[in-house]
From TrEMBL, chain B:
<keyword id="KW-1133">Transmembrane helix</keyword>
<keyword id="KW-0812">Transmembrane</keyword>
<feature type="transmembrane region" description="Helical">
    <location>
        <begin position="98"/>
        <end position="118"/>
    </location>
</feature>
<feature type="transmembrane region" description="Helical">
    <location>
        <begin position="130"/>
        <end position="150"/>
    </location>
</feature>
<dbReference type="Pfam" id="PF00528">
    <property type="entry name" value="BPD_transp_1"/>
</dbReference>
<feature type="domain" description="ABC transmembrane type-1">
    <location>
        <begin position="90"/>
        <end position="305"/>
    </location>
</feature>
<dbReference type="InterPro" id="IPR035906">
    <property type="entry name" value="MetI-like_sf"/>
</dbReference>
<protein>
    <submittedName>
        <fullName>Multiple sugar transport system permease protein</fullName>
    </submittedName>
</protein>
<keyword id="KW-0762">Sugar transport</keyword>
<dbReference type="InterPro" id="IPR000515">
    <property type="entry name" value="MetI-like"/>
</dbReference>
<comment type="similarity">
    <text>Belongs to the binding-protein-dependent transport system permease family.</text>
</comment>
<keyword id="KW-0813">Transport</keyword>
<feature type="transmembrane region" description="Helical">
    <location>
        <begin position="232"/>
        <end position="252"/>
    </location>
</feature>
<keyword id="KW-1003">Cell membrane</keyword>
<feature type="transmembrane region" description="Helical">
    <location>
        <begin position="36"/>
        <end position="54"/>
    </location>
</feature>
<feature type="region of interest" description="Disordered">
    <location>
        <begin position="1"/>
        <end position="29"/>
    </location>
</feature>
<feature type="transmembrane region" description="Helical">
    <location>
        <begin position="281"/>
        <end position="304"/>
    </location>
</feature>
Length: 451, 317
């Protein structure tokens, strides 16, 4: 080998090494000292941390030999961090799970089946909001106890809508359909104002110079559209799956979904919502705060974002519009799960049982941040909000309404299907493909993954 | 240009000149030298074996398995590679990465050459050189965040100015047409200073008398640049190109912070795709296969580039 070849070879070897060092390492340690046990507990929501810290303190008071150490990691890093910890064999004993993400951990044998423990200790599963317990069951194995739930609603800037002559009462009975947009589209048009102060119904409205958009739509919403298109499509009669959870056939090629997406595109073409290619990369809630939009769909977990005293604008919540198939909100919950590899199974179960108990869920309710899964604790949280002067009943109404909710789709490979559907919807919104064609092809790919 | 681009100067002329000691018969002493050599080489060798050779072998092994991080890997032979051929996301990732590399290396090299030549011929101010390095010193994630806010379509300062000038606003990171050029421009901004300094160091090696005689012969600045600077800079330029090409292919952090592969896969570059496959979808085996293919592509590109630019020979020698 000539020196030159050697060098080339070495360079190639170097790049090879540089591109394959993806596997990370970690160390493990054991916190057990004598009869004292430390349970590692992970969650992602910083707003919920104080409530669960209250629970940990109360739990330690009742069980002095067990200490719960809570680690909070932001959503965007939560699952990657958890995976790395699992791979290195140093995972938390208990962690908060979400319905799209948990199937892959269940499939990987990382979650403890709680069913035998639930049976042994006779946990009353009927005390939770309906629909929240079944999501965590697969093939007779139970992978979590319900922690909290969320539903969706409209959030709007009251000052802006008032200025355009829309009163709050009107917003409680909005209708929507994909052909003319119903009364919702009229409100959105009115709420859209151009730089010269003309609203969307004015014949002189200039859609190229919009100051405030009537509606902020979410396009980075995975395969579920929880924050917009999913709820609207459901109220148009669309269902994601043949059966949920654990369906084996997606139905993204349903014309009812394509119609819904086409309506959103029409909203953009009219100038009532920001075009995707000229849209902020920041969250819609930031834009709403900055006065760039008048209304958007939001989830009950964001309530305090809009009601905290620091917020300058006045916001209020309204129910989602009633579509051809009724009013439909996504209902989603989270759970607490136990790692199959935990060294402290009984202590971890004690903590999970406590997290799902009235004692802890009432403490969480007291903070008025999230709705706990127990029906009694939900009522308590609602009362806390009311005492603070926050009107959030639309979220609990949505959860209580008959046929008013649908569960987010839970299948195998959910995390992988997410970007496929998101890309299809974005390309339809950008006008790169027709909604029908884009969704048909995405549906085929998604179905290949759940076969 | 991505993260770790360790740069070593080309060491053509280094090493001991042969035959300056007419070897008296002292074999024992020679053996001692060799021992010392191994001793000094040991840390580098151990590091190489532990952090490069071993992970490389393991990566190649994983690429032949269905490893999903959570359970034991099972051997699947060339299955991952077969899947890769039909994977349109993989080909799209290669395509958009190539597009990025062309935009980034093109703009970065031209700008850096220009800056280096200006520094070389006009000023040798240390303060100026230090300033050029500032963007390179900022962590990539910070660079991404700062530009994301500056260029934001609705709240960003740049769009505010553009709008005030009557040019309208642009979703720099959210438009499929603009996203990749924007990412490339941001990274060019961050790395041009560093590249310029490398080239400047190369220019300093060119003997001054060449410029003096060129000037005597009546050559202008442009002619001196094309006839003296560029040809004599070739070995350094080749090295800089190879290093920045490899770095550029490894674009990840700016994308992870700003576009996350979107809109509609317009910026789903190969490294981001590998990351998604490995840590979002738990397909570590498949991700390793993509990584191995990327490594082979880079190796071939590097070999071709070194050959084309005849980097191992300097015209100065």
């Amino acid at each position: 080998m000539s020196p030159r070849h050697l060098r080339t070879g070495a360079a190639a070897l170097l790049c090879l090494a540089a591109t394959t060092t993806l596997v990370s390492c970690g160390s493990s340690d054991d916190d057990t000292a004598g009869s004292r046990t430390t349970i590692d507990y992970w969650l992602w929501d910083d707003l919920q941390l104080p409530g669960y810290q209250d629970c940990a303190t109360a739990f330690h008071r009742a069980n002095p030999d067990i200490t719960v150490k809570i680690t909070q990691t932001a959503w965007s890093q939560y699952w990657q961090n958890l995976t790395v910890e699992l791979v290195s064999g140093d995972a938390p004993d208990v962690w908060a799970n979400q319905s799209t993400y948990y199937p892959q951990y269940a499939a990987g044998g990382q979650l403890l089946d709680l069913q035998p423990l639930v049976d042994r200790d006779k946990v009353d599963l009927s005390a939770y909001q309906p629909g929240l317990t079944g999501v965590w069951v697969k093939d007779g194995k139970r992978y979590g106890l319900p922690k909290d739930w969320d539903t969706m609603a409209l959030v709007y800037n009251t000052t802006m809508l008032q200025k355009q002559g829309v009163d709050a009462g009107q917003l409680n009975d909005l209708t929507w359909n994909p052909s003319d947009g119903g009364t919702l589209e009229k409100v959105i048009a009115k709420a859209t104002v151009d730089t010269k102060g003309r609203n969307g119904l004015d014949p002189g409205f200039d859609k190229d110079h919009v100051k405030t958009y009537g509606f902020l739509a979410e396009w980075a919403d995975g395969s579920q559209g929880q924050n917009g298109w999913g709820d609207f499509a459901a109220s148009n009669g669309f269902t994601f799956l043949d059966k949920n959870p654990w369906g084996t056939h997606y139905q993204y090629d349903d014309p009812k979904l394509a119609e819904t997406i086409a309506w959103f595109k029409h909203l953009i073409d009219k100038g009532y919502a920001p075009p995707l290619d000229k849209k902020s990369a920041l969250a819609n809630s930031e834009l709403l705060m900055a006065g760039k939009g008048a209304m958007m769909v939001t989830g009950s977990w964001t309530i305090s974002t809009f009601t905290k005293p620091k917020v300058k604008q006045k916001f209020a919540f309204a129910p989602l519009p009633t579509g051809p198939a009724g009013r439909k909100s996504a209902l989603n919950g989270s759970s607490d799960a136990i790692w199959a590899g935990t060294k402290h199974k009984e202590q971890a179960w004690k903590w999970v049982k406590f997290l799902a108990s009235p004692e802890c869920q009432n403490l969480v309710a007291q903070r008025g941040i999230v709705f706990p899964a127990l029906k009694t604790a939900t009522r308590k949280a609602l009362a806390v909000h009311r005492a603070r002067g926050e009107d959030v009943h639309v979220f609990t109404d949505a959860a209580a309404a008959k046929d008013g909710t649908f569960l987010l789709p839970v299948t195998e490979n959910g995390t992988e299907i997410s970007p496929i559907v998101q890309d299809a919807i974005q390309s339809a919104i950008l006008g790169e493909a027709s909604p029908e064609a884009a969704l048909k092809s995405a549906n085929d790919k998604a179905n290949d993954l759940v076969k | 240009m991505g993260a770790n681009t360790a740069v070593a100067p080309p060491h053509e002329s280094a090493g001991s000149p042969p035959g300056n000691a007419p070897a008296p018969a002292r074999p024992r002493r020679r053996r001692d030298d060799r021992k010392a050599a191994w001793l000094f080489l040991a840390p580098a060798l151990v590091g190489f074996a532990l952090f490069y050779a071993y992970p490389t072998v393991r990566g190649v092994y994983y690429s032949l398995t269905d490893y999903n991080l959570l359970s034991e890997p099972g051997f699947v032979g060339a299955g991952n590679y077969r899947q890769l051929i039909g994977d349109e996301q993989f080909w799209n990732a290669l395509k958009v990465t190539g597009y990025y590399v062309v935009l980034n290396i093109g703009s970065q090299t031209v700008l850096a050459l220009l800056l280096a030549a200006l520094m070389h011929r006009l000023t040798r101010s240390v303060a100026l050189r230090a300033m050029l390095l500032v963007p390179w010193l900022v962590p990539n994630v910070t660079v991404g965040l700062v530009w994301m806010w500056l260029l934001d379509a609705n709240l960003g300062f740049v769009n505010h100015v553009l709008d005030a000038l009557g040019l309208g606003t642009t979703g720099f990171f959210t438009s499929p047409d603009w996203a990749m050029p924007t990412v490339a421009a941001v990274n060019t901004w961050a790395y041009t200073g560093y590249t310029a300094l490398l080239l400047y160091a190369g220019m300093l090696q060119i003997p001054q008398y060449l410029y003096e005689s060129a000037a005597l012969d009546g050559a202008g600045e442009w002619r001196m640049f094309t006839r003296v600077t560029l040809p004599l800079l070739r070995p350094v330029l080749a090295l800089v190109l190879v290093v920045s090409l490899i770095g550029s292919f490894q674009i990840f952090d700016t994308i992870a912070v700003t576009t996350k592969g979107g809109p509609v896969s317009a910026t789903r570059v190969i490294y981001f795709y590998i990351y998604e496959q490995a840590f979002n979808y738990f397909h570590m085996g498949y991700a390793s296969a993509v990584a191995v293919v990327l490594a082979v592509i880079l190796g071939v590109l590097t070999a071709v580039q070194i050959r084309l630019l005849r980097a191992s020979r300097s015209d100065l020698a």
